[in-house]
């Protein structure tokens, strides 16, 4: 049933100070918890997870919305696949903040402090809660030079974009 619903897609990246490379994954469970008085977000993560391990060390993560299916598929590669490391390093900037590159199709990013005491483990998953400490938008152009402002979604087993508004 839930696979029939459409969900936003986000890339989550975490990196501790003692790690030489960031780690991350694609989620289709990214949501706003509250906007006021301070914005909080959530997402679900299956355990075990190297991204969760890095988040526990760093107490922070960065979420980025993307517009390109190719980038989403690269983040779905198995972490043991050598192509994963190459794709990951080419998509995430090298400034230690975990933002996806604008050139790679990211349209916004949120740097978040992980709220361990608010997160909850349910079976083999954890619902991660984060407080947004900074955020920003990019203007992304498609191959035809038009501004792309629609984030990638996932529903009914496929990546998609939101369609026209229904009145």
Give a description of the structure.
The protein is of the alpha+beta class and 167 residues long. The protein is 16% helix and 39% strand. It contains three helices and 13 strands. It has helices spanning 50-58, 69-76, 82-91, and strands at residues 7-8, 10-14, 23-27, 31-34, 40-46, 60-66, 106-114, 120-122, 125-137, 140-141, 147-148, 153-155, 158-160. Strands 2, 3, 4, 5, 6, 7, 8 and 9 form an eight-stranded antiparallel β-sheet that branches. A three-stranded antiparallel β-sheet has the order 1-12-13, with no helix packed on it. A hairpin with a 2-residue loop joins strand 8 and strand 9. Helix 2 crosses helix 3. The radius of gyration is 16 Å and the shape is globular. The mean pLDDT is 82.
């Amino acid at each position: 049933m839930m696979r029939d619903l459409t969900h936003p897609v986000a890339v989550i990246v975490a990196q501790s100070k003692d790690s030489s490379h960031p780690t991350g994954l694609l989620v289709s469970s990214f949501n706003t918890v509250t906007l006021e008085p301070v914005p909080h977000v959530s997402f679900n993560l299956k355990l075990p997870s190297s991204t969760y391990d890095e988040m526990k060390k760093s107490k922070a993560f960065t979420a980025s919305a993307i517009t390109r299916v190719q980038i989403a598929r690269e983040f779905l590669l198995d972490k043991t696949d050598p192509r994963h490391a190459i794709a990951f390093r080419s998509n995430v900037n090298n400034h230690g903040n975990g933002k996806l590159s604008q050139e790679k199709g990211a349209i916004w990013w949120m740097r978040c402090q992980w709220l361990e005491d608010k997160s909850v483990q349910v079976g083999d998953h954890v619902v991660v809660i984060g407080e947004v400490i900074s955020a920003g938008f990019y203007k992304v152009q498609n191959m035809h030079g038009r501004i792309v402002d629609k984030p990638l979604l996932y529903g009914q087993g496929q990546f998609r974009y939101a369609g026209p508004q229904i009145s």
